Amino acid sequence: MARIYPLFSSSSGNCTYIGDEHCGILIDAGVSCKKICDSLNNNGISPKAVQGIFITHTHSDHIQGLKVLTKKYGIPVYAQRINLEILAQEDKVSANSELIEIDNMEYEVGGYSVYAFSTPHDTPASCGYSIITPSWKKCAVCTDLGYVTNEIDSELKKCELVLLESNYDKKMLLNGSYPYVLKQRIASNNGHLSNDDCGNQLSELVKSGVSKFILGHLSRENNTPDMAERSAVNSLTKFDRNRDYILEVAKPEGNGMVVTF
After folding, report:
1. 123 in a structural domain
2. Is there a domain that residue 261 lies in?
3. Which CATH number belongs to the domain containing residue 176 in this structure?
4. Cα 200 from Cα 11, distance rounded (Å)
5. C-alpha distances in angstroms, 183 versus 48, 87, 168, 188?
6. For residues 61 and 38, what is the distance between their CA atoms, to the nearest angstrom?
7. Reduced to 3 DSSP states, what percent helix, strand and coil does the chain have, rounded to the nearest 5?
8. Of these four, 13, 43, 81, 97, which has the most CB atoms within 10 Å of its CB?
9. DSSP per-residue letters across 131-182
10. What residues are paired with 40 via a beta bridge?
11. Number of domains, the chain
């Protein structure tokens, strides 16, 4: 049995723990160190259980708490080379922590094998992660992507559980208060994945045998949990929920949410 905790998941901040009370890894640290530690502790997990922090990209909602977290606990930080350079240049990581490049390599950290795959986003570099747990269960965390590339599709289809971005509802974005330029960026091939595009990918994944999903990184301005969930279910009408697949929606603050796989 393996466990994933979407501690924080929204356009305001992202941090996911994969592991148990003894050992695990974090994907991103996009809220304050205090919030991350409090959330871990509320789930019965000491921050000292974290063996590595894997950064997807350097937008603030993914690295906000990184400097203080690494200063306090000295946890190694893993990221693509370009992102490591940005983190170092902008003083986003404490000198207490080792910086480890993960480009085109699989790393084993605390019994978890982690592989980075590139995602199309408006940053110098961006990635998602697929993880094989000590119990040989495989999952992926994949957010902040404008579209699903062939590489992403291939990686996700190897998993039992996928946390996939369902960022915005197209009508809400179109009719919302964001400036036109920002709307264009979000909807571009280097922006975010819409509810519709997420649903289309979920359908392909179920056909390939993936059975557990978490919808993540929902926009607070251009989406709602109900809309994201309804869109996903509507895309999977050929399949029976809770028989062919299990679907959860990550909350902005997980408050103890855990999914086993």
Report:
1. yes
2. no
3. 3.60.15.10
4. 22
5. 40, 27, 11, 9
6. 18
7. 30, 30, 40
8. 13
9. EE-TTS-EEEEE-S-SS--HHHHHHHTT-SEEEEE--B-HHHHHHSSS-HHH
10. none
11. 1
Half-sphere exposure for 230 (CA within 13 Å, toward CB): 7
Look at residues 120, 214, 218 and name the one whose alpha carbon lies nearest to residue 167.
218
pLDDT at 1 over 90: no
Which two three-digit tokens encode residue 118? Answer: 């590139």
Distance CA 101, CA 82 (A): 9
64: in domain: yes
Name the strand (E) or helix (H) holding 7.
strand 3-10
For the record, the structure tokens of 200 come out as 């289309």
Name the pTM for this structure. Answer: 0.97
Structure tokens at 70: 């690494």
Question: Rounded to whole angstroms, how far apart are CA atoms 140 and 161?
Answer: 7
- Report CA torsion sign: 92, 115, 17, 252: positive
pLDDT for 105-152, tens place per residue? Answer: 899 999 999 999 999 999 999 999 999 999 999 999 999 999 999 999
Structural domain of 15: 3-256
Specify if 105 maps to a domain: yes
The neighbour count for residue 240, using CB atoms within 10 Å, is 9
Residue 27's CB is within 10 A of a number of other CB atoms, namely 28
Torsion angle of C-alpha atoms 183, 235, 214, 92, degrees rounded to 10: -20
